[in-house]
Amino acid sequence: MPPRLNIVTAGRSIAFRMRSSTLSRLDESSCLRRVPSRSITADEKPLPVAEDQGKGPNQEQLPHVSEEAATMGKITGEGGPDLEQGTPVQEILKRDDDAQEKAPKVIQEDIKPSGPKGSRSYSTTARRLQDALMSTEDAEVETQGLKFELPALPLQSNANLKHRYDPVIQQVTNLLMKDGKLSVAQRNMSMILSLLRTAPPPSVNPNRPLLPGAPPSSHLPLNPILYLTLAIDSVASLLRIRSQKGAAGGGVALQIPVPLGLRQRRRQAVQWILDAASKRKTRGSGRGGFAQKVAEELISVVEGKSGVWDRRGGAHKLGVSARANLTFGRRR
Known about the structure:
Elements: H1 7-13, H2 21-31, H3 65-76, H4 89-94, H5 97-102, H6 105-111, H7 124-133, H8 167-176, H9 182-198, H10 224-235, E1 239-244, E2 254-259, H11 262-278, H12 289-303, H13 308-321
Antiparallel strand pairs: 1-2
Helix pairs in contact: 8-9, 8-11, 9-10, 9-12, 10-12, 11-12
């Protein structure tokens, strides 16, 4: 059996310790106590700096980004940012509608337009006077970056993209075109002009002269477009014969001469030249055979050797003989 506990002897060996509540309170009050700090007021002077010691690490700080950019701009000669001028508050508030409502009334009045509703912020009268005083001769047009100079205003009638070719060239090209192949007709037209340019000067027949005021024959190859126009206009008929059925009585047609316009005369002359060129013999092979025959026919027209002159003369003789029929419509 285990020995029994003697209460009398046990009480002597147990030691009772008092709770240290007072000590803990003193420790907590000492830990929470604030250390008094010394602050420098405006009246006090800053601490003196020792002459022997150098500047500290935080005393030489780098300048602001804007200040550095302004300094570099002065050095390089480029205009840097303006440090004295900032972004106005009005410009910032114009981007934010909510901030405009909460802004002071003075700023709101500056933001709102001062002019009456529906009026313009600029003067149209001054703009009109400025445009009237400015002339195209005095105005300097910058041509930097352009390969060619800008066209002078107002534009010419043939300055449009659709009317960039000479009217005679455009009309002859359309008459040369077959089956809608415009590129083939343009190639033939280019070859015709090239052959007229490289051909020797023609010898003009005095019995079949060209239009009055024409340049000398030696100058015609220098300008193939003038060469072509002169050949067409010289051989063009001034009139055509219209047949009026039953006008002569007994079912006989009456021949009535009708004058032709410029494009009509040229169209008839080109058709006569193309018909005569198609009857020529082909020399050689290739795509330029027809263009060569047309160029030779044009040269023969200028020299007075083409049969187109006979067709023109026959149309004029028939018109002269039928000029008495011009009063047919006036009869009652």
